[in-house]
Amino acid sequence: MKTTITEVHKYVGQEVTIGAWLANKRSSGKIAFLQLRDGTGFIQGVVVKNDVSEDIFQKAKSLSQESSLYVTGTIQEDSRSPFGYELLVTNIEVLHEAVDYPITPKNHGTEFLMDHRHLWLRSRKQHAVMKIRNEIIRATYEFFNQNGFVKVDPPILTGSAPEGTTELFKTKYFDEDAFLSQSGQLYMEAAAMALGKVFSFGPTFRAEKSKTRRHLIEFWMIEPEMAFYEFEDSLKVQEEYVAYIVQSVFKNCSLELDRLERDKSKLENIATPFPRITYDDAIKFLHEKGFDDIKWGDDFGAPHETAIADHFDKPVFITHYPTSIKPFYMQPAPDRDDVVLCADMIAPEGYGEIIGGSERIHDYELLKQRIEEHNLPLAAYQWYLDLSKYGSVPHSGFGLGLERTVAWISGVEHVRETIPFPRLLNRLYP
Ligand code: 4AD
Hints:
430 residues; alpha+beta; CATH 2.40.50.140; BirA Bifunctional Protein, domain 2; 2 domains; 5-stranded mixed beta barrel; 26% strand; binds 4-amino-1,4-dioxobutan-2-aminium adenosine-5'-monophosphate; cytoplasm
């Protein structure tokens, strides 16, 4: 019976064959332990000299790391292994012998591992992170589908830019200039006027010259947009969504969290409601904490965000930022026009901002004025202005950065390990 490692619980006491790679091995005189991986998981294969032919035992002892195999054996329960099962090997067929696999069990430097990202992905840690990433994506679709949202795909090649024009990747679009999308938001607003509640999930591109553990040049964003939702309504969706994905990972990726040595107690109690603090109060709080480098009107840097986040054990919303440091489309607060109805959600434990969102301006004249004030080319935004010209309604939305969210939930220090092939400031390969 051919099976995969995640399915072996169905075959306890039976003989199965697994297509696998040799991740690692060790042997003592009469017994060889093979660490096998097949993509679905990891299992230990045990080869006992007295139970197999001399030929098989010698083969097991001489196998090289990452050789591909068909391994046949009997599945046994094993309470000592975190996985709970092991394979008592009866036969090994070598499909391909890997010679001098570059990533050995010893420690390698990050640059070396990044140069070998196409192979590094095979390691236990990277496997766990990719499984958690996949679970967050799965739970995202589940959450939004269960709550009546329609998935809409905005374009990647765009003519207009929502988040300012300094970080755009420019490319030729026949005779015109085009930009790689830095956010699908404006298109999602159009879609919300057609379909009510929508969400997108796609790659976004920022030519940011930032070399930090939170910045990628290409990252994936989930962008919900909701017609007739005001600022408060949107905050509620955001906290429910984030609590939902954390609980999904907690429930469905227990093995992976253990493999990453994630402190699960930090995730267990992530439930709604999330705390909130206004930008004004955040500035006061930072001054009390001795941050003299920041004044009203400045954007927060990573140390500021971390100081605020450390005060709470759940993600925190920082709301009502100054109009001057936010994009053109944000709705002014009803009682004062120097701040806007926006919120950033800051993850605990120093992982930084995972969500940016706001209520959108839906007054045609104000929106036009803001586009002009931001020196954006009106012609490129004419279609967007149409949304507030024909049956304009209050609406809100937000964008969650997938990689920062994966980093936080997995407890991985740097976002470069949360995406299969990271695009960084100085890295386009592999
Ligand atoms: O705050 P941002 O720039 O918001 C927008 O783009 C809005 N248009 C979204 C919307 O309202 N539909 O980005 C949203 C999130 C951030 O909170 C962060 O998690 C992530 O995207 N992000 C990055 N992640 C990795 N690398 C980068 N360079 C990122 N820039 C933003």
